[in-house]
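User: Can you help me understand a structure? I only have the sequence.
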Amino acid sequence: MDAIPATAIPERFVSLHRRRRRSAVAVLPLVALAVTASVLAPPAPAVAHPSGDPQTVSVARDEQRPEVVRVRWRVGGPDDLTLLGVSLGLLPPDRVLLDGAVDYRATDPTVIASSELFSAYLLRQITVADGTGACPGAVTQSKGLARAGATIDYTCPGPVHTVTVAVRTLTDLNPAYRAAATGPDGQRFVYGPGEDSHEWTLDGSRAVVSASASADRGASVPIAALLGAALAVAGGVLLVSWRLRRRRAAA
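Assistant: Let's start by predicting it. Here is the structure, written out as tokens:
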């Protein structure tokens, strides 16, 4: 079949074809940038626990009493306190609705904080041990429980330098709960099922790198590789686009 002469093709079709080709070329760099952005975008944050913010725990040595380890525990959300109160028998079961929603009331923290059952729960679920064994604890403050949390003092046989602290609060109710813990000199750890025990240095004698920081360093290598690949794709697409524009300009 003979080729159709260029003069036989209506100019409007030629113009439309050129516009479509220019549009496709213009889109290519945008696609590359989108790929780069998707590679560099941080992963969606993991859900800390079923109800919202995670529990928080702070670990420190009492500077006036070097044999005492002070742990401060704070619940993530007020509804978690209500759920705990129901599980301890301090609040009626109907406060947890059939659909799983929790009927929180402003008086719940006061009811829970004033109970010995709650103190016993904290001492059972949060433990401290030095090199000689377990250090007995006592809940020293639980007023304003929803806002300020509860403070527990653990007395060890002598001045503490390194201790192992276990935190299992609320994970007995749901394994999805987590506790974000902090210690001296920027130490950090996230407690959860299978990771309910951690060693803390309390006297500043050595630097401790948190598990999360180690994980960040381990992830830096693949992130750098993905960044390089994405930038290479973007550069290649831009180069092709530039060459096509040069050819059209020469024609």
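Now, to help you interpret it: The two ends are 27 Å apart (CA to CA). The longest strand covers residues 55-61. Let me know which part you'd like to focus on.
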